[in-house]
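Inverse folding, one chain.
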């Protein structure tokens, strides 16, 4: 049920709160709101459950979503050390079916769908504009030669599906592209996540215990994938909307804590994973956004945006930053390097490293190990260029 509101979230940042007693500093989430009258938020099937669990709700791209249930730092460590669950029902599941669907996806996507031939195997890819800009980053699952499943981002879902249908109408009109609005999705992440899912859904264990990373299994009414967004192991469970609330509460009874958007953001940043709308969008290409590994330029296969990528070698790249001085790295702060000016795309305090980290788009000649300066208010603070991910599987990667 839509929820009327007058608040729209603008920025989520974690900032240091200095203490005068010499004790360790606390880190708090600061939410900046901008008034917007007569806004109606969309809700997921878990909205009532979030509120019953005491979640602090915010507007996230037009969705009424939980930012935390208490301590964001505790939620972050819960996922790194045990298991946490995320409401990702706002993301969209899309089924593409029909003869020659593989050939269509080979043309539609920058990564090569021919790489996935094992049923259930997943592939991460960008979907590009003809000029090379990123329409969205998404995951596709090969199920059969007549059926591929795609998961797209919430904020771009309608745009993505319209683009897919436009391209299909022009190149392969016999395909059917279906938005699976009947499905919900919960991500369960952490070293104990899979065991907790099997505790709740024992009937799926046989089909899923052999899944490798970036694989999925169709378990009837449950579609379970091992393709996380936190740098930890776990499952993404797609299931009928009418069953998701009971599944959520059953997971909680099994010891899986609910996790909000705040911790999800610090977890994915530590894991070096891009966020659409911050680290990439339609104005930049994948080669400038740390996604070169998802772009297949070696095969003879043509795809939308390929000609533009070949004609315009990148002048910038995405790099990791570790702040050496005291402060907090945030999006849009300028990065001064010997090779020119860059900009932070995502920045935050890392609970695992207990330091401030960031992804930044910088000139291509900037190298790992370089010291750069970040403009924070009226100061120039030193940061080291590092190879990301920053942390995964509960440990630092630096």
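Residues assigned per position:
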């Amino acid at each position: 049920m839509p929820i009327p509101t007058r608040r729209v979230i603008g920025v989520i940042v974690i900032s240091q709160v200095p203490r005068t007693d010499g004790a360790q500093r606390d880190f708090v989430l600061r939410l900046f709101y901008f008034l917007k009258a007569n806004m109606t938020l969309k809700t997921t099937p878990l909205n009532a459950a979030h509120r019953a669990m005491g979640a602090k709700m915010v507007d996230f791209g037009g969705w009424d979503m939980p930012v935390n249930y208490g301590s964001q730092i505790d939620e972050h460590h819960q996922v790194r050390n045990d298991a946490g669950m995320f409401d990702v029902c706002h993301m969209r599941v899309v089924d593409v079916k029909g003869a020659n669907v593989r050939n269509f996806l080979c043309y539609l996507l920058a990564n090569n769908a021919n790489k996935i031939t094992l049923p259930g195997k997943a592939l991460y890819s960008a979907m590009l504009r003809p000029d090379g800009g990123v329409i969205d980053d998404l995951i596709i699952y090969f199920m059969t030669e007549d059926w591929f499943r795609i998961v797209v981002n919430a904020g771009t879902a309608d745009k993505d599906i319209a683009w897919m249908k436009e391209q299909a109408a022009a190149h392969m009109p016999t395909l059917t592209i279906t938005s699976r609005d009947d499905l919900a999705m919960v991500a369960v992440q952490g070293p104990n996540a899979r065991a907790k899912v099997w505790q709740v859904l024992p009937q799926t264990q046989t089909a899923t215990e052999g899944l490798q990373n970036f694989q999925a299994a169709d378990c009837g009414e449950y579609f379970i994938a091992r393709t996380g967004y936190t740098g930890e192991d776990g499952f993404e469970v797609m299931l009928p909307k009418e069953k998701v609330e009971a599944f959520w509460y059953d997971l909680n009874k099994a010891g899986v804590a609910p996790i909000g958007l705040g911790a999800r953001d610090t977890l994915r940043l530590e894991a070096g994973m891009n966020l659409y709308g911050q680290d990439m969008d339609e104005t930049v290409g994948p080669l400038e956004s740390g996604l070169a590994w998802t772009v297949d330029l070696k095969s003879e296969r043509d795809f939308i945006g390929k000609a533009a990528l070949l004609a315009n070698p990148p002048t910038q790249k995405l790099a990791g930053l570790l702040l050496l001085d005291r402060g907090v790295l945030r999006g849009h702060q300028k990065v001064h390097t010997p090779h020119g000016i860059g900009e932070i795309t995502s920045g935050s305090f890392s609970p695992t490293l207990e330091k401030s980290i960031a992804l930044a788009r910088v000139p291509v000649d900037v190298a790992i190990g370089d010291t750069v300066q970040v403009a924070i208010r009226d100061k120039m603070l030193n940061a080291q260029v590092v190879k990301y991910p920053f942390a995964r599987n509960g440990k630092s990667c630096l």
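Confidence is low (pLDDT under 50) at residues 4-38. DSSP finds nine helices and 23 strands in the chain.
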